[in-house]
Amino acid sequence: MADRPVTLLEKSEVLAGLFAVWDSIAALLDGLPEGEWLSASPLPGWDVKALVSHMIGTESFLAGVAAPQPDIDVSALDHVRNDIGAMNECWVRHLSGEPGAAVLERFRAVTADRRAALAGMSDGDWNAVTPTPVGPESYGRFMRVRVFDCWMHEQDIRDAVARPSSDDALRGPASELSLDEIAATMGYVVGKRAKAPDGSRILFDLTGPVGRSIRVDVDGRARVVDDFGDRRPTATIRMDGLQFSRLSGGRPMSPARARDIELDGDKEVANQVIEHLNFVI
């Protein structure tokens, strides 16, 4: 079987999105009252502090810093489902007793270290194949996954503290790159998860500030395409782009945006796709 093609991405564009979302998270957390660090997030078992601790842990891992030893068997926790989840939980428990301001300073410190390392990375290293959450891929694709992860967690935090992103804030490079990452999985979602029948042509018509059109053609296998040629979609799913990202990440929809989902064409297949949008481990 032929090796899967590697995704090569422009380093400056991905880093612009990654650094922007780190800046946005730090600004959101700056001066956050201590009680709000303990606000429940949309992710089971995690409050705001846990979300930030998770991001600290991932960037620390990428900087070569080992996870702290946990005080319990974290793999036994209900919301821990794999080795990555167990590593995340080590950092969550390690930082849970720290005040929010100290956790924010740690976030700023590790992301500053990562900025310097990433800015100094050669193109060869950036394009080199490495293990990633989406399989063997370029390091650049891994960093686009990091943009997606951090951007999703920013929205989680905003939901938790009732400070939703403005439309203008949602139009930046981080949301664009995050939608790129989600779009790249839609062939898998439509074909493998939703099992859309051969001949299906699914159009995701995403509205609002995180808007775009994503087309998936099922012809032997499901793949994302630029257009359907002269053929019409067999099913259309029209919804707010941020809400689409929430469902793709296994989250409840944001209370701050319209939750309507409009279906055209083969509504049975469209509903199958919606029910299987969540691709996040």
UniProtKB/TrEMBL annotation:
Transmembrane segments: none annotated. InterPro entries: DinB/YfiT-like, Maleyloyr_isom, MDMPI_C-term_domain, MDMPI_metal-binding. GO terms for molecular function: isomerase activity; metal ion binding. Signal peptide: none annotated. Gene3D superfamilies: dinb family like domain (1.20.120.450). Residues 176-270 form the MDMPI C-terminal domain. Residues 20-158 form the Mycothiol-dependent maleylpyruvate isomerase metal-binding domain. The keyword Isomerase applies. Keywords: Isomerase. This is Maleylpyruvate isomerase family mycothiol-dependent enzyme. It comes from Mycobacterium alsense.
